[in-house]
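ok so I'm stuck.
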Amino acid sequence: MNLSATLQCASGCRGTQAFDTRVTRCPACGELLEVKHDLEALAAKSADDWKLLFESRYRRGPWPYGSGVWGKKEWVAPGIRDEHIVSMDEGGSSLLPAPKFSASIGVEQLWVKQCGTSHTGSFKDLGMTVLVSAVKQMIADGSGVRAVGCASTGDTSAALAAYAAAAGVPAIVVLPRGKITPAQLVQPLACGATVLAIDTDFDGCMAVIERLAADEGVYLANSINSLRLEGQKTVAIEIAQQLGWEVPDVVVVPGGNLGNVSALFAGFEMMRALGLTTRLPRLVVAQAEAANPLYLAYRGGWLYEPVTARSTYASAIRIGRPVSVRRAVRALKACNGIVEQATEQELSDAAARADLDGLFACPQTGVALAAVAKLARRREISRDDRVVVLSTASGLKFADFKLASATNAPIELPGDYDAVRRALEGALACRV
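replied:
not stuck anymore, here's the structure
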């Protein structure tokens, strides 16, 4: 098939840019660029044939088509030559039921998409495999890119550093000093990235990396870059695939820089346009109350103003000036979406309750779960809705949060078997 994808201005300006360009904004108006696929060419293959192709590749060889992203290459990045693909078998993450949590909030079917089981422990791998593959191809084609860089609250830097290391491309990471967890800081350091810890917040780091991209030949790897969203949209396709090519009623995603909700919408809309599914889900963005500009805009008739993000357990979404806010608003309007927020207590309680289903939820997932509980209580989510919550990262990256919110503790005992036996009997009696 003769397939292609280009970059076009999100506001509708004329003209296109090559898929593997260094430009991330429209030269005419400054709006973000978006990837556009040739849907007419894609429609030459039937919906059933696309399903069969995707099923035949899913978590199988040959490399790299067993990847959750590259198994859908024709829908993601058809112009990337296979020799430049940098893949770590990302995607293919589990879709797990949470029956205890579901019962506690009065929803019959709630599933958690465990994106944190990807290579570096977050969904960011799905976008970074596409972006770094494009950069590798650009360098091979003589583009003059010197390095690839990002601003990050943790997960983006881990994914960028790992994939750049695999590609042999220098990586530059700009972090807000003292505002990410040690587990998140060590990942880019271990992979050899140049890590700049700056006395500012994420939004200040974003301003720095954008200037480096404009002036110093650094290719920008944040979700302002549409190539990232192409990989992340495969989460939507994978959810439908795991549900027997059915679309859930509601999909809930934690929201920080807000690229993920527009990526999900793109995936669901592409499936509908090509006949693999027949409808869109209702998308919900969940924000921490300490960093809630989209929630405030939603409550105020979509009048957006940036905020100064405050300290939150959900540090990965501690962003007051999200770069993809316009994309997110368009996506939410198109599917009658909702924005909800969660306090620190609400997100902690929700994560702890979900852990009793064995999930080990990160704080961002706690935000999403708390939002579901609030919407179910208000009956904006009904009992018989099929709900999918995106778990964006591994709880192992947030050990301090998990200890602080834990409802369980070790039983300290003397080195005496009878004391151990009595403690065991007491513990088991409590569970009867």
